[in-house]
Amino acid sequence: MDRIAFLLATGLARGLVIALFALSLVIIWRAARIVNFAQAAMAVVAVFVAFAVTALTDSFWLGLVAALVAGAVVGYAVERWLIRLVPARTPLPGMIVAIGLVMVLQAGIGIAFGPQHRPMAAPFSEQPFTVGGVPVLSPYDLFVLLVALGVVGGLALLFNGTTLGLQMRASAMAPEVSRLLGVRVPRMVTLGWMLSAAVASLAVLLLVPTELGLNAHSGDVLFVHAFTVAVLGGLDSPVGALVGGIVVGVLISLVTGFLGAGLAPIAVLALLTLVLLVRPGGIFAVKEARTA
Amino acid sequence: MSPATPRPTTAAAAPAGASPAAPAALGVEGLTVGYAGAPVMADLTLEVPAGQIVALLGANGAGKTTLLRTVSGLLTPRSGRVVLDGEDLSAVSVEDRVRRGLAQVPEGRSVVAELSVEENLHLGALWKIPARRARRDAVEAMYDAFEPLSRRRRSLGHQLSGGERQMLSLARALIAEPRVLLLDEPSLGLAPRVVAQLLDTLRDTARRTGLTVLLAEQNVTSALSVADRGVVLGLGEIVADAPAADIAADPALRHAYLGF
Ligand SMILES: Nc1ncnc2c1ncn2[C@@H]1O[C@H](COP(=O)(O)OP(=O)(O)OP(=O)(O)O)[C@@H](O)[C@H]1O
Ligand SMILES: [Mg+2]
User: In what residue span(s) does the ABC transporter domain sit (chain B) (predicted)?
Assistant: First the structure.
């Protein structure tokens, strides 16, 4: 019983990080109709900036701010100077360019910083609290949980409660009609990339202290999990990303805890296969046809 | 120019107390547009005087949609230019043409399907009325003008009937008080009575605010009944340009280019 409570709690914290990253994939898909395979590599670049800032200032918090800002800058640069030049008639060219970008970024980071993992200290203890002698959640897990919930809430507010969010949603769903209503669609697409990359960078930053450390591939496994989640939930569905992230996080945690870490990837794949067999469009996929 | 026959007025379609913007003239000069291959129209020139309703007629594939999309900037012409109140729009983006008062209701169901009626209306007003309070008032005014929409405020676009969608598209264009309105087949798929109501609303709005309208229609009779002038497009050229009543009364023209 103790074990289950602990695994569920850490699974939830881990799941919310996956959900954040999946949410970043949903944002970019909705804004630009691209599955951004370069998301993890871009986020890692931003987290390297955060790492440098933390190393220079000794402050995790300044590093966190730096990750968000650097993520947005990387998102801006990639959209304006790369993706915008790629023909967008079908999604394929964009995806291929994104995969190419992964190789360039990861090789670049490898050349500049070497293959070693650079440990990053968590700002809070990773020793779990105990409730009545039962270990549940570490202060850092709690911090991750709160940040993730805050970001999810903030994004929901942005998209559903502001005129900027309204314009971003409209641009994604009906770019031509939106232009005819005076919405500056290219600007909304750029903003979508910036927002998405910033959220992804935050997710990687939150993850790194609980892992071996930072290197060029620190975001890879997170990307695979988040991609699974985004497909599970339907790439269009923020709610799907959130729920799917938690489900996958808890699944990984339980399988790792009871059956061993080696089986976790297989469990995730099995879940993915199962869902795609039952609902090819994802659990939360919307059926409606889109307008041009 | 034929005087419009008086008709029962439907509801007013502009925010109460709003002063209508000055009417604007639309010009198309020597326009050549096409897709891959031969141009759809070559060296086409057309004048829509300020405050007039001009019906743009022609068979399927005559180039009505192509012309409207070029005027709004979605298509770039091979040569020629679009002029709004004397200003050459060639270098002006779609979004900035909207800000100059040029609005287009595109062909088909242009309502954003995943947004609610209310959100669609706000979207149309955003660039013009950034302040939330004033925008809400403008949206309310549209509900007054288009009664059926006020009962569907929270409905999503894809939940509306064809007539409601067309009504919403029109309301969404009018909310920003355009000076020139391009309408592409508003009658598409609608019952005759709904078409008549829609066009009545359009004409009343135009009369009251001095709105200039270029109305592309297959539904020749309805279009001519609200238009001042009719322009008939055939194979990429203007084959007739005359007062609406004259075109309606010309059987030869109707047979040759309008198919009835
Ligand atoms: N996207 C496109 N690519 C290639 N050709 C096109 C495209 N759109 C229209 N055309 C062609 O251009 C010509 C004019 O089409 P357009 O849509 O302007 O006609 P229309 O007068 O609006 O017809 P309708 O009354 O059927 O709407 C047609 O021959 C059509 O096949
Ligand atoms: Mg057409």
Answer: 26-260
Q: What share of chain B is helix, strand, coil (3-state, %, to 5)?
A: 35, 25, 40
Is there a contact between A184 and B95 if contact means CB atoms under 8 Å apart? yes
B131 within 8 A of B182, measured Cβ to Cβ: no
The tokens 């270990």 sit on which residue? Answer: A135
Residue with tokens 């970043």: A24
* Ligand number nearest to the C-alpha of B74: 1
Tens of pLDDT, residue by residue over B176-204, are 999 999 999 999 888 888 899 889 999 99
- The A residues from 179 to 218 touching B (CB cutoff 8 Å) are 179-185
In chain A, what residues touch B98 (CB-CB under 8 Å)?
A: 179-182
- Domain assignments of chain A as residue spans, ordered by start: 2-120+137-291
In this structure, which amino acid lies at residue B76? Answer: T
Kindly state whether A133 is in contact with chain B, defined as any CB-CB distance less than 8 angstroms.
no
Q: Give per-residue pLDDT as tens, A163-183.
A: 999 999 999 999 999 999 999
Q: Which CATH architecture has domain B25-258?
A: 3-Layer(aba) Sandwich (3.40)
Evaluated on CA atoms A135, A23, A232, A270, the torsion sign reads negative
For chain A, the average pLDDT equals 90
Q: What does the alpha-carbon distance between residue B57 and residue A121 come to, in Å, rounded to a whole number?
A: 72
Q: Do A180 and B111 touch (CB under 8 A)?
A: no
Residue labelled with tokens 């939330």: B132
Cβ-defined contact of B172 to A181 (cutoff 8 Å): yes
Kindly give the distance from the C-alpha atom of residue B186 to the centroid of ligand 2, in angstroms, as a whole number. 10
Read off the pTM: 0.87
Class of domain A2-120+137-291: mainly alpha
- Separation CA B28–CA B214 (nearest Å): 12
**Pair A97, A36: CB distance under 8 Å:** no
Contacts of B24 (CB under 8 A, 6+ apart): B50, B84, B85, B101, B179, B180, B212
